[in-house]
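Please review this one.

:::
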Amino acid sequence: MVVPYGEPVRVVAYFSPEFGVAEDLPQYSGGLGVLAGDHLKGAADMGLPLVGVGLFYDHGYFHQKLDEHGWQQEEFPALDPAALPVTTVDARVSLELAGERVDAEVWRYDVGSVPLYLLHVDGVTDRLYGGDVEHRLRQEIVLGVGGVRLLAELGVEADVFHSNEGHAGFLTLERIRRAIVDDGVSFDDAIERVRPGGIFTTHTPVPAGIDRFPRELMDKYFGGWAAECGVDIDRLMALGHFPEESPDAPFNMAVLGLRLAGRANAVSELHARVSREMFAALDVRIDAITNGVHVPTWAPARPSPELGNEDLWRVRSEGRRRLVDMVRSRAGVDLDADVLTIGFARRFAAYKRATLLLSQPERLEALLLSDERPVQLVFGGKAHPADHQGKELIQQVVQFARRPEVRHRMGFVEDYDIAVGRCFYEGSDVWLNTPRRPHEACGTSGMKAVLNGGLHCSVLDGWWDEMYDGSNGWAIPSFEGEADEGHRDHLEADALFALLEGEIVPMFYDREDGGVPVAWLQKIRTSLRSLGPRVTAERMLREYVDRLYEPASVST
């Protein structure tokens, strides 16, 4: 049901480098893009006047294949816009890329009532997160500068400009330039004019995850901008520097976003605390708006906590069977639809520790091969093409899963995407999340699982840190005080195995009259009641409206 918003929210322009709105538009790589897609869907459901601005990539993200050794191979098939659910937009968007004049093509995809505009420049928007640092800079100019020019060309009078991470941060430089050139205001006044309507969302809890561009590239691509705005390169560079930082230091896109936004937020309470510490030198306010997920997309058959034991168990068992069938067809692994199924699916990065369970193979085998209370594991996810360590983690999982003695209890599904993810969330009894705290900014995969009646077992990181109440899932103890990373991982693996062996597995297999696990089903009900209202995109969007969009719209 659409619930329209009136004044004072006017038009919000939401910029993101990727959007995961549907499996038939492969313009996303993972969590950031899927969140952006859910943001647009939530806005459409609420009647929020929002437009999305992104990029159209010739190859989107890659298709994943595993070779005989379990090593990830990437395929980059060309996408034909004519074969995708997009329409051509008759708009001329001209840009200058280091003296080269280019025109961007534009396509539109409607997310309900919310239009999503995707800009494309030959040779620039080829691959998502591909290329060297200069190529990345060129893509971000197309997104930020080109996006603002596109909205002006279309006559979209946005009052609020929301940058989803720093990749779109150059939109602020274009807004400053337009204020100076079109209205004749000074550089300082232009900053004060654009800041109130700017919103910046950070998703990065570690400095290494932030885009930085060297001074020579900024001079090459924005020297003309500086001259047009009447300032020198030092003044430009200062916008992307911490106080007292050297003028020759790389230009930091998160600093730019925070410095020029009237309002900023992190994506969980814990992440906000981490971000305030990371950016303390800027003396800016960073609020917390915890991410949420679009319920109709991820839990279309969301079970009710009011269901009786037999009906709730039937729903869960049907979802598990569909997951087992998918793993059989996609991975050739003959899982058992009656066995406790643990799901782990996300980007393969070192801090997410996909191989934590594999670190104690004897205990893992004992769980998998138990005669009376067996466990089975399903994995999915991609590593960035340049992330050798992430690929090694996938290989370790795949090679372990291919061992003859466990291959009927463990599978890796190639080419993880929205459709595969939906099946994982629907069928996993336990959703496992094992990041090194506090490196998970939010993480939304577990939210999708719990809406489908799965139970969350996670380190207290991201959203779980604030929503776990002791009864609605399981918390894996974290040993952040342990300086030795290997020993810390060992301690946390021990704690995870203790949970599985002592609580999770026994509860699942404790069957009363009728053959249903009553205590397990009650825990599902507790999870649904306590988490269901809090993990939705609707809750997230209402917080954005009340705390960021409305105040920003009024102040412009």
About this structure: The mean pLDDT is 95. The radius of gyration is 24 Å. The first strand starts at residue 12 and ends at 15. Residues 96 and 102 are 6 Å apart (CA to CA).
